[in-house]
Amino acid sequence: MVQYNTMIYILRLLIIVxxxxxxxxxSQSDSENTSLVTPGIYTLHSVKLQPYPVRxxxxxxxxGTMQVVHPDIPPDWTPPDYVKHFSQKNTPNPSRVAxxxxxxxxxxxxxxxxxxxxxxxxxxxxxxxxxAFEYARNIDKLGHVYGGYLASFIFYxxxxxxxxxxxxxxxxxxxxxxxxxxxxxxxxxxxxxWGFERWDAIGDFMGSALFLARYYFEPLQYFQMKFSYIPxxxxxxxxxxxxxxxxxxxxxGHTYWVSFRAGQFAHDNFSAPSWLRLFNIAGGWSLGxxxxxxxxYLGLDFNFEALPGSNWLLRRLWEGLDHIRFPAPxxxxxxDGVWYGIYI
Length: 344
Prior knowledge:
Elements: H1 2-26, H2 30-33, E1 58-60, E2 66-68, H3 94-120, H4 139-161, H5 166-189, H6 198-216, E3 223-229, H7 233-236, E4 254-260, H8 262-270, E5 279-287, E6 294-302, H9 312-321, E7 328-334, E8 338-343
Antiparallel strand pairs: 1-2, 3-4, 4-5, 5-6, 6-7, 7-8
Helix pairs in contact: 4-5, 4-6, 5-6
């Protein structure tokens, strides 16, 4: 009987200990509890903050039962601006929701018109699949990843603006961004010239998944997908029916970049000067003339989110521009070395 009681006691300890461990993290001194941890360095924060200083205690009423004492909140304490969005309630503003709906429908109709003229104007037929791995040397797959990421970001910002808090707006944005991309891919599936490409759809999914991952995994916030474009000679000299009809399909003029916020990383981890946060290092992927080969680049880039300014509209502007790689020095490292004083 003694052994049985001992086993029951040990079993209860094994059940309770995992719950005590996280609670012990919050059982700090009063001086530690009154200082808030600085949030993530970018808009998509992954640091989860308490909206007020917390002093938690555990009260054991009976064996195996815990209760957290209500936080001791100073009467004159107000949350800093950088944590207000964590306590934002889900109270969508009806007029803003209507505005978002109108903008989404209008933009969707305009994009649908553009796509229909560029790709869907030919014969329509039954829905079918098609995998074109030879098309544009697969750089179009990067375009789908970037498109899924950018669409998710835009919908995230719109839903957050309506009054939905950030943690939910991220999921709404990723879901709506993916649905938008899949709509375009589905329309391709009814075109006899094209078809629903499953690997394109996977690229769309990866873009939306990357957007979510940057929110929950803070190290990814040091990386950003970017895009730059300059019309190719083939696009500028369109003169026959087989010419490129849309800049979206002008892959010779596209360059897709992965930008590493090296200056921000050095500032955060090695106490580098704050001005260094403005500079990134980016790797780019593009196509050569006539799509004969792929080209890889290494170049300088800029971190617009490190620019000063606390105005809401200004911050949104910097945040949006940070998805574009602006002209800056670069070097082509494949197929051969070429230095560009300014690469557009």
